[in-house]
Amino acid sequence: MAKVILICGRLCCGKSTYAEKLVREHGGIILSVDEIMLAMFGQNAGSEHDRYTKRLQAYLLDKSVEILEAGCDVILDWGFWTREARCSAKEFYENRGIQWAFHYLDVEEGVRKQRIEKRNQEVSVKGEQAYLVDEGLAVKAEALFEPPEQGEMQVWVKE
Predict the structure, then answer these.
(1) This prediction's pTM
(2) Contact call for residues 142 and 78 (beta carbons, < 8 A)
(3) For the chain, which residues make up each domain, given as ranges?
(4) How many angstroms separate the Cα of 118 from the Cα of each of 4, 6, 8, 106, 126?
(5) Which terminus of the chain has a smaller tally of CB atoms within 10 A, N or C?
(6) Interval 67-113: pLDDT, tens
(7) What is the pLDDT of residues 56-69, one digit of tens each?
(8) CA distances from residue 153 to 32, 82, 92 in whole angstroms, order as listed
(9) Where are the alpha helices (DSSP H) in 95-156?
(10) What is the signed CA dihedral for 15, 8, 50, 83, rounded to 10 degrees?
(11) Among the four given CATH numbers 3.40.1000.20, 3.40.50.300, 3.40.50.1110, 3.40.640.10, the one describing domain 3-158
């Protein structure tokens, strides 16, 4: 039976890289809110960003069920920053009898800051398809993030 992996972690903790590693090792399809948002709007979703993100997440939850029913594992790469988001996703899959697991990427702050700097350089210089993390985004992301408790996560990846 196909399963879904939900990746939880702070901004620039390595969620997308981890998702790609899971696909290489075990197969599956990555559903990434950031990938679609950047393809549609680039860095320019502006004040509508949060509203679009919420709608896209709802769409991708439904799409994940279609993929799972087709027999392919799904990896949700979008952070699950709040306890409410984690509980909602867990309930969504449990109500459908779908096997799920949360993976939390617990990365030291110094490593995360290096990754932010690297990403910003890649976005600025190479045109990499990722969000530029300015001070406003960094502050917003930290204010929104609610660290999970040990019992919430099935896999805890410490870096």
Answers:
(1) 0.92
(2) no
(3) 3-158
(4) 29, 25, 21, 19, 11
(5) N
(6) 999 999 999 999 999 999 999 999 999 999 999 999 999 999 999 99
(7) 999 999 999 999 99
(8) 20, 13, 16
(9) 109-126, 135-144
(10) -170
(11) 3.40.50.300
**H/E run at residue 53:** helix 49-69
pLDDT digit string, tens, across residues 104-159? 999 999 999 999 999 999 888 776 688 888 898 889 999 999 999 989 999 999 98
Is residue 147 within 8 Å of residue 106, measured between CB atoms? Answer: no
Q: Evaluate whether 101 touches 2 at the Cβ level (below 8 Å).
A: no
